[in-house]
Amino acid sequence: MNRITLLAVLCLPLAAFAADPAEVPLTIKNHRFEPAEVRIPAGQKVKLMIHNQDSTPEEFESHELNREKVIPAGAKSAIFIGPLQAGKYPFFGEFNEATARGVVIAE
């Protein structure tokens, strides 16, 4: 094995870490998450890109995902989750808990 091939083989794992995680859009509208069900691949890191289209702030919260973040009215914010084992991970909007509910399904 020559030096260039050896260097390429050694750098492959680093390239995998440098790849950007998949971005999944999530919208808050009328105090609801759309879509309410988000499917992601198990075992991979994902970037939830949340756009709050309401005129009031909302707080994305999930005990199962160990995430909590306030998203101002009209703003976008990113939340990184995973890699997750296969399963269901509920989330809710703390300021409108009765209507703002959803679940991440890792499969």
Description:
It is built from one helix and nine strands. With 107 residues, the protein is mostly beta strands. It has one helix at residues 3-18, and strands spanning 22-29, 32-34, 37-40, 46-52, 58-62, 67-71, 76-81, 87-93, 101-106. The model has no long low-confidence stretch (mean pLDDT 90). It has a five-stranded mixed β-sheet with strand order 3-9-8-5-6, with no helix packed on it. Strands 2-1-4-7 form a four-stranded mixed β-sheet, with no helix packed on it.
Query: Strand content of the residues, in percent?
Result: over 45%
Which sheet architecture does the biggest sheet show?
5 strands, mixed
Q: What gross morphology would you assign? A: globular
Total number of strands: 9
Write the layout of secondary structure elements.
Layout: H1 3-18, E1 22-29, E2 32-34, E3 37-40, E4 46-52, E5 58-62, E6 67-71, E7 76-81, E8 87-93, E9 101-106
Parallel strand pairs: 1-4, 3-9
Antiparallel strand pairs: 1-2, 4-7, 5-6, 5-8, 8-9
Give a brief outline of the structure:
By secondary structure, the chain is mostly beta strands.
Tags for this model:
107 residues, single chain, 15% helix, five-stranded mixed β-sheet
